[in-house]
Amino acid sequence: MELYVHPEFEIVRNEKKCIACRVCERQCANCAHGYDADSGSMEGYDEKCVNCHRCVTLCPTKALKIVQTAHTFRPNANWSNNTIRELYLQANTGGVLLSSMGNPRPLPNYFDRILLNASQVTNPPIDPLREPMETRTYLGKKSIPLQRGAAGKLIENLTPQIALTMPLMFSAMSYGSISYNAHASLARAATELGICYNTGEGGLHRAFYRYGSNTIVQVASGRFGIHTDYLMAGAAVEIKMGQGAKPGIGGHLPGKKNVGEVARTRMTPDGSDAISPAPHHDIYSIEDLRQLVYSLKETAGNSKPIIVKIAAVHNVAAIASGVARSGADIIAIDGFRGGTGAAPTRIRDHVGIPIELALASVDTRLREEGIRDDISLVVGGSIRSAADWIKAIALGADACYIATGALLALGCHLCRSCHIGLCNWGIATQRADLVKRLNPEIGAERLVNLVKAWQHELKEVMGGMGINSVEALRGNRLMLRGVGMTQEELRVLGIEHAGS
Amino acid sequence: MSICIETKPNGQPMHFSQLGEQLRALAGQSVILQNCLGQRYIAAGQKNLRVEIEGIPGNALGAYLGEGSSITVHGNAQDATGDTMSAGSITIHGSTGDAAGYGMRGGMILVKGNAGYRAGIHMKEYGKTCPKLIIGGCAGDFLGEYQAGGIIAVLGLGTEGKAPVGRFCGTGQHGGRIFLRGDALPAELPPQVSVRNAEQADLALLLPSLTQFCEAFGADFSMLQASPYWLLTPNSSNPYTDLYAIY
Ligand code: SF4
Ligand code: SF4
Q1: Tell me, what's the ipTM?
Q2: Are A328 and A306 spatial neighbours (Cβ–Cβ below 8 Å)?
Q3: Residue of A nearest to B103 (CA)
Q4: Distance between CA atoms of A51 and B237, rounded to whole angstroms?
Q5: Structurally, how many domains does chain B consist of?
Q6: Which residues of A touch B148 (CB under 8 A)?
């Protein structure tokens, strides 16, 4: 017996407006629209719709909308509709539930309960339209003692740094999980903006080597696409130890997506699963991590900063302290709301901790241990707006990573169906006709628009605080106040309650 | 003409970073390292460098090794030999530690003696490049775990009559081939792996590597050629497809 699972969404077509042009039918890769030649009218198949709004957006007469079904089980606060649906599905298939994008559960968001400060009267605000505001950022080790040569001349002993025009980067998304055109958009935008994008673990397509100085190349447990030239191609090398959406488990690109250029770029056999298990099988300790860090440093002749990316988990502060001693130049921490191209639902939704708390506790711990300047701190895991970005910097981040936000700029409608591989927006798919829908030139332009707007917002808020350099905002928790938080939450965040 | 580097000047072992710097400046040349004592990352990522090592190199010897490089060790090597190497060759006149050939995607590693745990894990082939890892003695547990391509052979020289590998051989294998010389198989093999006697056509893939093995270490080629081999291959190149419920 297979239990019936009622579709989550309904396709609503305004018959008065519909002209049966069949655009929706052509646009929906999930085949949720059809044309009935006998009646000359369109039909919708609700069970196939993932609510991505492609048809809604492209319908020339705006005849379509997608609504959440009103069909319901007997209301039950404990057994929600979704919980029951998922359980039926598992009883039907015996499978581990797979989903994508970030955690959608209504767990507390601390960014939303933090408020920013501004100057009044005594310390006047600065007008960013008139005054220079510095957002330039260098990521890497800062605790290098000044050394002078015989004639008193400064010896250049600075270890390699990533230079950014602002403390923001596009975080790791592999070619394979997203499309060629999505990568092309990110690479072009990063170059134009003077920031970096990140290859993720799928290797670097040969056409993108020219964006190398704005690229971070990743090394993960599966070692996809890694060869000598790849390691030298970027501005930095990132070792992926964990990901916020799925801490403790690895990646798995199904063989049907690992074909053609994707497989070639990963340097794997065509059509075979690309499995990157949770652990690096040569890393069982900070000493082992140190070995991987230094093998990469040696390979690059000490010319590239090394990033170690970990997921925000319970004892993240202790782990970060270890990472800071591994020789890494930068630590990237990914919070539990971070996105993914595919992850087991239970892990995405239940493993890890919010980035706000992880960031505050790591920054505090590294300061207490006197090693904060040994390493730069980059955080991601659902930085949704300039406000989140600014709050993260004030909590102690040297820079932020964004990915879901960047995909939204490219047209993503957060249908959370990336794992199916039929992204109607040409982002999370490898199907050539769908990939073509994303024009990398327009994509890059939209990303540039987004990031420039955020940069301007950052400057405005800094100006309001009377701060003219992002350096002075970093870790400046006095600029933050909490609302509606417990003493314990305030303590972990290291901020005062509003009004005090 | 080879360039000699004394890696223990003034009686103190040279730091790996100093040695690395010297080696990077010597691309295109032949180098002999004397009195090597545990320096890590030797020749990491280097192309067109020939290194002879007298003594014992440290971990991650020849990691990310590139085209045209060759490393010969007159002694044992330690862990992570040839980690993610792309090309070239590493020849060890002794044994090697754990995770030899992790993620290697090209080139060849020849080990006269034994290899530790997780040898050949994540090996991958791609286009025409097919990595090869030949172990003269025995290998530890997890040989060829998650192998996605390439050739691993364990010859069990000196341990005739016993399976030359430990437990969990080929767990998660989804590509490539593992040859085990002799009649004995490990007691248990993981479900992802099929095993059968290697036939003439299979051995044709292995023989060129065996020739190189015999040239390097003076082993008896006709004996190796006449031996029986088990061949381990994956049941599927998509071993975990049925694990998930998609919605
Ligand atoms: S899946 Fe997207 S394109 Fe297809 S019917 Fe639903 S909203 Fe429209
Ligand atoms: S990338 Fe595509 S498939 Fe993934 S959530 Fe966005 S619109 Fe949906």
Answers
A1: 0.93
A2: yes
A3: A223
A4: 33
A5: 1
A6: 268-269, 272, 274-275
